[in-house]
Specification:
The chain contains five helices and eight strands; from the N terminus they run E-H-H-E-E-H-E-E-E-H-E-E-H. It is an alpha/beta fold. The strands form four sheets. The protein has a two-stranded parallel ribbon. Helix 3 (about 55-70) runs parallel beside helix 4. The longest helix has 28 residues, at about 120-150. The mean pLDDT is about 90.
């Protein structure tokens, strides 16, 4: 099987559990992505479901992705648009009925059909914010490399490359306070600008 598969893609919890196996595969040139779909589920799981606080979407795509470094992210779809007969055309308290399958609300529904095209969801906007958080870490790492190569002092900026446990300790242990993540992002931004 190992010779036939170039990219492994386990669910997020399995990815974390199997980190030693993933690292062995990477040494053989394999890639390891991770994904969420109708699972994992649970009280503190990071996923895109409507019942979950939107911050979880952001943490999944930002802090968790930076911490665990998957080579990619797979999500099976962002909209079940083809199942809907008419778009959302009223306000936030709409009579629109999006249900067409059993499972968690919001699964595979990050954008919805509107009268003039796609409508974003809170989960999708937090997913975007998480990708931007990830980019802050990436930019900081890049600037640190440049500064070191130029022989400049980087101070304690390098400590910000590690996701602090106060923001995300594990996929199921993290801060639920948006201010904690905003504060970290501000510190990342200041470090980037300072380099």
């Amino acid at each position: 099987v190992d010779q036939a598969i170039d990219i492994w893609c386990p669910l997020t919890p399995r990815f974390v559990e199997d980190m030693p196996v993933i690292e062995q595969g990477r040494q053989r040139g394999k890639k390891a992505w991770w994904y969420v779909c109708c699972g994992p589920r649970g009280k503190t799981v990071l996923n895109f479901f409507c019942q979950y606080p939107p911050l979880r979407s952001r943490l999944l795509m930002g802090a968790a992705t930076w911490k665990y470094q998957p080579d990619g992210f797979l999500y099976y779809r962002i909209s079940g648009w083809r199942f809907y007969k008419k778009p959302i055309s009223s306000g936030p308290l709409t009579a629109w009925e999006p249900y067409y399958q059993p499972g968690p609300d919001g699964d595979g529904e990050l954008i919805c059909p509107g009268p003039k095209g796609a409508l974003s969801t809170v989960q999708f906007e937090n997913l975007r914010d998480g990708i931007e958080d990830y980019e802050y870490w990436w930019l900081l790492r890049d600037r640190l490399r440049q500064a070191k190569a130029a022989g400049r002092d980087v101070g304690d900026a390098e400590t910000l490359l590690a996701v602090p446990p106060s923001v995300l300790e594990h996929l199921t242990r993290y801060s639920e306070e948006p201010g904690d993540l905003r504060g970290l992002r501000l510190r990342l931004a200041r470090a980037i600008e300072g380099l």
